[in-house]
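Recall that a protein's primary structure is simply its ordered list of amino acids. Everything else, from secondary elements to tertiary packing, is in principle encoded there. The following example makes that idea concrete.
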Amino acid sequence: MFTTASRVRLLRNRAAHHEPLINGVPLTGQVRRGRTQRLSLTDAHNEILHLVDYIDQDIATWLRQTSRVPGLLQTRP
């Protein structure tokens, strides 16, 4: 079972190692029907906001209002 913090850590590690994220973040050890489950980028962004909300609700509100990520995800090919 993955927690919010562990999902954000997986995303951070993938990004830090310049691994492709376009198809989502692989959830290591989570296999269904022979395939590794993935966290979509939209869900990953929501996990980040959820984690920030634990730390500081004002910053989480600001991020929700100013983040360009949802718009970029909608326009990606």
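Helices lie at 4-16, 41-55, 57-66, 69-75. The CA atoms of residues 26 and 38 lie 4 Å apart.
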